[in-house]
Amino acid sequence: MRNILIFGAGRSASSLIRYLLSKSNEEKLHLTVADLSLNLAKAKTQDHPNATPLALDIFNADERKKAIENASIVISMLPAHLHIEIAKDCLEFKKHLVTASYISDAMQALNEEAIKNNLIFMNEIGLDPGIDHMSAMKVIDEIRSKGGKMLLFESFCGGLVAPESDNNLWNYKFTWAPRNVVLAGQGGAAKFIQEGTYKYIPYSALFRRTEFLEVEGYGKFEAYSNRDSLKYRSVYGLDDILTLYRGTIRRVGYSRAWNMFVQLGMTDDSYILEGSENMSYRQFINSFLPYHPTDSVEIKTRLILKIDQDDIMWDKLLELDLFNPNKKVNLPNATPAQILEKILTDSWALEPEDKDMIVMYHKFGYELNGEKKQIDSKMVCIGEDQTYTAMAKTVGLPVAIATLLILNGKITTPGVQLPIKKEVYEPILKELEEYGVIFNEQNVPYFGYNPDLF
Fold it and tell me: In the 8-state DSSP scheme, what is residue 127?
């Protein structure tokens, strides 16, 4: 039996583990699922004869090294900052490594040694990053193979709630890490290139500069810009492209509503609110409003946000129970962002019967034989239930498929990498279609932008 060691049995690991266990007899696999919580590891392995749940503290170097030494290949589904020590151990014991996380500088620094030891350190092989890279490179490579020149690439992705579970005014629920949602867009201006001109959107304006998208059968969506759309320009071989933009998908109206929190200062994570533990929800929002001897918190909120009582934006705030004087924050030494996350989790948690949805949308503009053309590629994936979510499927399945391809010698290029080579993306995208992760590509009129470059 070939031993696959998986670090982390959280939500993203469910579909990954199920896939590998379904292949375990024919592929002669044994899974060791290591997590700080033995119960979590047991829940994911479900007493399968080809799986061993293991209680393991990642900071216990001896335990970690022993587990890695006994593995044929290692998967890390832990938070990104915890990958590096695992990666160093993989170098020591000559083991391949697969993660779904962005390549950090520390991970990239191991590239030369990984190549020297003929080791594959596959990263960014989840959803976003991951499926976005693979589906984009497939079409870009096809355009280039015909002699086309890329002019425009726009890529959008969002984790949303499925239409049948979409029952609040925000058209949104937390389908993944709430903290990442609250802090989205912070840390510098969003930057991209449009018709050859660099564009920048400060955080204060991010949620008021959106693009609109239409997905057949699912209606209209909007997207706000990711922080750094230029990060993959060289990686994709798009250094000369005129337009490059990456964004996050939400339902129409979400961004305008979210902008209220930004303008009030409720998404700030840089300071602590005194007395937060005993603060009510009403006191929390009032702490961002000016003092007035007679105006209520509600009136002050509407005045500062310039919204009327019959505005849907006001209804969205009311739906969150933000003005409740009896609900307590119960978080000591909390930042505004942490308190907002707590409040939103009350309203946006997925119910037991809820399903999530992933939407991905690419636009490829190119020139071929003097004619400008465009391909739009769209993918929608609906989750099964609270365990096998669309997010778990789209993050975990590419990791699992890549792991098996590496084990079976189908992926051979060594080094620290992301899945942009044909040997990686072609078989993975093909197999993902069997699990309902299907991209529909359409030839559409070239969109382009205003030729005056402004």
Answer: T
